[in-house]
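Problem: given the chain below (568 residues), write out its structure.
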Amino acid sequence: MLKSILIKDYALIENIQVEFGKGLNIITGETGAGKSILIDAMGLLLGERASTEIVRKGAEKSIVEGIFDIEGNKKVLSLLSENEIESNSELIVRREVFLKGTNRCFLNDTPVTLNLIKEVGDLLVDLHGQHEHQSLLKVETHIELLDEISEDHSIIESYRSKYDKLTTMLRELKELTKKEYDIKERKGLYEFQIKEIDEILPEPEEDVKLENELKILENSEKLLTVANEIYDSIYENEDSIMGRVSGIKNKLVELSKIDNSFTEKVNESESLFAILSDISEFVRTYKDRIDLDPDTVEKTRIRIGLLNLLKKKYGGTLKSVIDHREKIGKEFELAENFSDKISELNKEINSLRKECGVIAKKISVNRKSLAKKVKKEVEELLVNLGITDSNFEIRFENQTAGLQEENFIIVDDKNFICDANGYDKIEFFISTNIGEDAKPLVKVASGGEVSRIMLALKSILAKSDNLPILIFDEIDTGISGRIAQKVGHSLKSLASFHQIIAITHLPQIAGISDYHFAVEKRKLGDRVVSNIRMLKNNERINEVAKLISGEKITKVALNSAKELMNLS
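Solution.
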């Protein structure tokens, strides 16, 4: 839901803020008062490109800011999360257009690109009128509109799951085929490298371990000499440390018998004796392990040299050598079994093409059955909306795949080009006059007709349509009286499922609004500015009466207004 919109220094608008409500929001005003400017500003908020001409004379920039309630809108929340934009139940969309030609876009005060603003706008609002932001005028959305009212969405999800798997395998096959020549060319090199590495067979971090061992081996004489000196000093010499400590301990024991304050020192001397004993035992065991064999030193040096050679050739570290061996091992194995691998992949792909084809055919049959129902309902609704002789068609096409086509599925032993929606291509066609051939809906010229066709479709799709906000401009073009009343009731019914914002000049539509806003133009100093405000009860009656009788409001017009508003 669009909770509010702020517009500053935009064309004739100096500074306005409008708070919209749930249900049917109607905007009225005299021709030239600024209704279209308001819709243009909303379009800017939804990602339409801006011109510096919109900046009000005397201002440096125009600002349009909208606050949307997005609670529960999973698609919008997911898009914000993907782009690392903090969000809660509200989304603030802001556009700033500078006179100098630059413009800035923000989502929740985070600077973003115009494309992201448009993505968010496409998930929030459908704007219908003389604007580009109309989903009905995008052929690619027609199949989605039809699928929305399908009672069984699970079959489409099942197809897409298999289709995703198919496209993944097709990418894998393409990459594999692309690598075939290169891998076969390198097969000899890989074979040589594998043999070279496997002859040495390095182990993880072996180089570090050997460097430490070599350091010890190269210093083994010194280690043995010093270790012997330490052991002799502690144990073997006539004046050994252990002997002297033992003598000191005995004297402390003698003193403690006279003065017990020496008892603690006796304990400490025993600890010192134990520490020295532990050191001497470690040194004795260590020196017994020292290897003075020069062959061991040489073998270790040779091994380190071989490892360093591998490191130099294959990435600089032993890890890179081992990783390279693993990689080329797989590539070599692939080169040895290339034909088998491609054959296996093609077999799986062909099986998936058939599985996708079976499901896609069921989806197509369901769509064609649904299309007949939608055609009938749209034509009936269009009669009520003032398009009495309409012929609405939902046309299906599919295209067989050529020899060079990779993205296809198999349906009844025939290859058809496909996408995530199946193999159907769907487009809406319409004629609004007897004797005319139906033409593509995207080429229908009348903004009012497009809006009413969309109103008919939205009335059918209302319960399933994901877009929470619908904006209608010129929906009442070329209608009046009883038809206008029916258009109003259709809008009112649709407003049970969506927030509707509609510009109208018809009292039959304005009279049944949940919220009524008036756009007014007034003189401010030597310039004209537009303003919009929400009307209270008596003001609403007067505004509807003005739509009936013109600027001079008569008693008859007031009574008619009350009757339209169900207040009489």
